[in-house]
Every structure is written in structure tokens, then in C-alpha cells.
Write a structure and sequence with these properties.
It catalyses: a phosphate monoester + H2O = an alcohol + phosphate. Belongs to the metallophosphoesterase superfamily. Purple acid phosphatase family. It is an enzyme of class 3 (hydrolase). This is Purple acid phosphatase. Its EC number is 3.1.3.2. The chain is of the alpha/beta class. The chain has one domain: Metallo-dependent phosphatases (Purple Acid Phosphatase, chain A, domain 2, 4-Layer Sandwich), CATH 3.60.21. 23% of the residues lie in helices and 28% in strands. It has a nine-stranded mixed β-sheet. It is globular. Bound molecules: zinc ion (ZN). The site of zinc ion has 6 residues, from loops. Zinc ion binds next to loops.
Amino acid sequence: MAVLHNKFISLHLLFLISIGYGGVFISAELQRFQHPAKDDGSLSFLVLGDWGRRGAFNQSQVAFQMGKIGEKLDIDFVVSTGDNFYDNGLTSEHDTAFEESFTKIYTAKSLQKQWYSVLGNHDYRGDAEAQLSPLLRKIDSRWLCLRSFVVNAELAEIFFVDTTPFVGMYFSETEDHTYDWRGINSQKAYVSNLLKEVELAVRESSAKWKIVVGHHAIRSVGHHGDTQELIDQLLPILQANNVDFYMNGHDHCLEHIGDSNSPIQFLTSGAGSKAWRGDIKGLNKKGLNFFYDGQGFMSVNLTPTDAEIAFYDVFGNVLHRLNTSKQLHSFI
Ligand SMILES: [Zn+2]
């Protein structure tokens, strides 16, 4: 695991203090991590969401297939789109669910790589800060979960966005759930500041591929459907800054939806364990290319000019592929 630490250099958080007409506001740049691409300039990784159930609901079977595909593709890392531990996140940084649902499940050799994770709404129902704790990295050095951050992987830059605080319902209609909003004093200020940070980061990026990862879907025909707050607030930033892919979990399915106003492809990988919900929202099927209600995961293969994305079921069968090329854009 020492090798991972060498490959994985954290740059310090830089605070920019600006004085505007409305007074002083503080905007922090997103924390950045460097992850080198392969020697031939390519990059590959797996994307998984909505998984931690101590192996149940086919979590272990999905993990087994990830190990096989991970080896075949010689993956560089794994991305988790959140809802990492069910039902209510971790109770503390000492919660044994961390090892029972993560360390002891994703045991394949090919999966002993860095994992980059965001928090989902279920993670916020437990001790959200526990998942951010450096102590977890001591228990399993693969683990890295932060609220929002950037991974610079040379040909690709991946922008991880904490989407749970965008969703008004979690503040106003909490039903029987308690959310851990420590660190988020004001929803409005938190979201507004985060949007500024994301906009700055994607605008300044010169990476060939710009990928944004969040827990909640911008577009989905699954159980939860589209997330209006993200359509209104986050999507315009992605459209204006040539983002290629938005990847998310939350709906326990696999899906691929195209955007009608930009080249952005919306990719859902939230099928890491419990799936087969059976209720498909027919409200907005615009741009729908692929939807699968069952368990599985996604792989991403990038070269400076080409991207290949594949969706797999619990048996490792490829259900859908998306191929896109950058050269096409440069000639237009
Ligand atoms: Zn969720």
C-alpha cells in the first residue's frame, strides 16, 4: 500500500479571500489529488454506487465481477458515487461496517487500488464525518472520501461534488430520518460556495476529458427521477465548460442518457447491491439510450482521443457500450 501513497499526492488547500461590493466573502479552492495515467497515456477505472450491505443483495457477486473486469482492464482506481454504507452510513469511524462492507468485500487483487468516494444521502443519515476521517485510511489505505474534491489524472480531470446538500427535501421533509448537517451551517451558503468552486475548477481545467461525479442524478428515469436542484444550479455550469460526462448513483440502476443541449452524457452507476426496484419513471425519457434496473457497475477507458464506457450486470456481461471520440469535435 506504500506505493499508493507515493502515487497520491495531496496539494494543500488554498484559501482565496476576495472583497466584493457586498462585503468580504471567502471562497476555498477544491482540494486536489494527483493520480498518474498509465505510461501509454491511457486511464481506466470502474464506477460503482449504492453498495455497502455487508455483502448482501448481490454486493459480493458484483464485487467478484468487478475484480475480474478490473484485472482485464488493468484499472488505475475505483470511483464510488456514494451511499457507501446502508442503511444509515457509519455510526462512527470505529463502525465495523467499514470493514464488513468494504475491506472484506472488494478483495480482488485488481481492486487494491485507490478508491475515490463521495457521500450519498444515506451516508448523511449516519455520522457523515466518520467517512471523511483519516482513521479509515489507516484501516484500509484504499479509502478516500471527501465532500468535494478534484482528481487530476493527466488526460482526465474528475470533479467530485457533494450533491446531498443541494436537495431541499432533506432539509424540509426529513420524515423519520436525521441528517448529519455538521459542517453545513447554511444550505444556501454551502451550495452557493460549492458552485463557485466547481465553476472555477471546471473552467480552468485544460484536461482532455472533464468528468463530474456526484451522488444524485441530474437526469434519471429511475425511482428518484431527475434532480431539479442540480438541473437548475449545477447543469448550466457543466454545459458552459465542456464537461464530457456526469456520473452518479442514487437510483439503483445502470443508465445512459444524452443531453439535448450539450455533448454531456449522463451515466448512472448506482447498482452495487440492492436493485430491481421495478418502478421506472416515465416523466422525462428525453435522451434515454439505456436503462437497466438490476445490479452491476460501469467501466471507463480513456485515451487522449477516445472514451469507451461499458455497463456490466452481476454476471459480468456487457449490457451497453458508449464510444465517443474527441477528434470529431476538434474538426468541427
Ligand atoms: Zn442515494
